[in-house]
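Predict fold of Diguanylate cyclase (GGDEF)-like protein; 709 aa.
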Amino acid sequence: MSFPAHTAVPGASGTSGARILIVDDEGVTRMMIRRVLEDYGYRVLEAQDGQTATRLCDSESPDLVLMDVRMPVMNGFDACRNIRRSLRSGHTPVLMLTALDDVMAVTLAFEAGATDFVTKPINWALLAQRVRYALRTSLTERELRESQLALARAQKIARLGQWRLDFDTGQIHCSRELRDMLGLSAPDGLTVRDIVGNVSPEDRVRLRRFTRELRRTQREREVEIRVIGPNAPAKYLFLSGDVMLDEEGRSCALFGVAQDVSERRHAEARLSYYAHFDELTGLPNRVLFRDRVGTAVTAAQRGGRAFAVMNIDVDLLQRTQASVGQAASDRILKAVAQRLASVLRDRDTLCRLEADSFALLVTDVEGELEVAVSAKRLIDAFAVPLPVDDWELLAAVHVGVALYPSDGQEVDALLQHSGAARTRAREATGSSYHFYTADMHDRGIDRLNTEVALYRGLERGEFELHYQPKVDLRTGQVMGVEALLRWNRPGMGLQMPDQFIDILEQTGLIMDAGDWVLREACAAIRSMPLSLAVNISPRQFMHPNLADRLMRMLDDIQFPADRLELEITEQIVVEDEERAIATLHDLASRGIRVALDDYGTGFSSLQRLKRLPLHTLKIDKYFVISLVTSKADAAIVRSTIDLCHQLDINVVAEGVEDDVVMEMLRGYGCDVAQGYGICRPLAMGRLTEWMASSTVASLSGRHTFRPVR
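Predicted 3D structure, encoded as tokens:
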């Protein structure tokens, strides 16, 4: 069985195809990580303990290791130490998998030589980004090591940049290559003053000490200096020298070689920068932010004032990434970072944690009120549209706040708790901020347990389908059913979709669950003279080659394509309208029908409705329920039915609760009705019983149904 699927991230060139070794004694965890990484183009190896991982590193030389810390046979710490001692894999990046609150494990992991760590529960949407960053850093480090070796070989073999200082004449003789390095035009016979004048002032003392020590000890010595030539850019020169003796054994000259190590120094500076700053926004990254929070903790413990850690996300980034190119997405991200930074105090630190997540360190605060003012300032900054290129974009900001020391006294605890508070803030409509409370930890654990239970539920067959009949209002006959997913969770009874669908979608398990629903429903309805409606999630709908995948599935089950109707929401169309329309046309060309579900509750647009190749529109139940009591809702329903018929679109009314509403819909010309007043969703066995016994009376050719409660 497969696991969470993810769309590949643009800009991952250079790391796709890399081989990743996953080391974990839990098969479930290994398989879930494998699914995520393979969807991003990585090749995956697996090991269930540290001893096996060590052997694989020696034989296979993976590009990166993802390793749990606690395993049988050999734990992650010992395995990491063995990998670091290996000649083949000593420089391989190792990311340790640790629990969010396991600070000791993090410390031991770094002491064992780990490159970084990934916290459990794993954020599946960001796991590949962490792997990509580690691979990119490893590549930079490898290039730096190779550059250093090449430079050392060049110095040893070619001895470029030769120099000699004669004591008798006081002149320095330089090879042409060294004169070029220094930007000197004189052919030879330079004085000490000529050379020293080009050395940076802070290095002149070191150079003089270098020559004095050479003459005194008469032993080879080395020094690195920075020179500023009159006609050349500043360079870092590595000098090595020795003493030349005359026939009587007295020192008569100093000689040696000079190596230009500027490229290495600049590479080291770049590496140091990328290790502490985000390349795109220029903000401090997670590493530097952790360091600054740690400094704030130390200062507070020594008598300083309290501080707050804020975890921030901006929903604009999530909404636009699917509909704009990578370059435009990067410009939006930089504009967001600049807008956030524009409202900070000088002593505050804003960082980009990863992807579209930011963090803010607010130091020297007196209490919650001052912190709340800072959070409100962030939110207010996005009250006006954000100009990017030719667009003006609106964004919602969600801020989670953790206070030191009440919400945590360690860096990891503060980051974890502010993240939990941000998750609570996202539950509100629009921009909001939320302070951490103790129950959020328990909610996080419940969420993790639910994710695991859903995965196991798919494996163990805990899901089942219920079917709700749809009645043709012209004939009174049942013309189709809608398949609805239920989860019979052990110990908790039957779970409705609103209790788990969002988690299936966010973890990627919706792909496996969706495939199961389609196969199970088509097989169950195949022999019945009914159409079948199935809800399809945004992740399923946006998956490449959706129509091809569906047709292969229908062919396997031998279910006619024209009896299948996929129900989508308006939000799917809003997020990427052009791509959605192309997919709808592809489905229509195969005979698969599409229904627009919950019409009227989202971003309804008559212009959009005209463009969509729809077969059916479902009027949301909130309009149908109030038909009798609300003239406005009755007018909306009636006009929607008339409009759809003009566009050759069938209309289904959801939420039909009684005969009065059904008669009104029939009078409006509505095509199909569905709701508890007709029949609740039923398991297949009860559905066949209901269909056999539901028609109890007939009046003027119209059937009356006995609702099943």
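The two ends are 36 Å apart (CA to CA).
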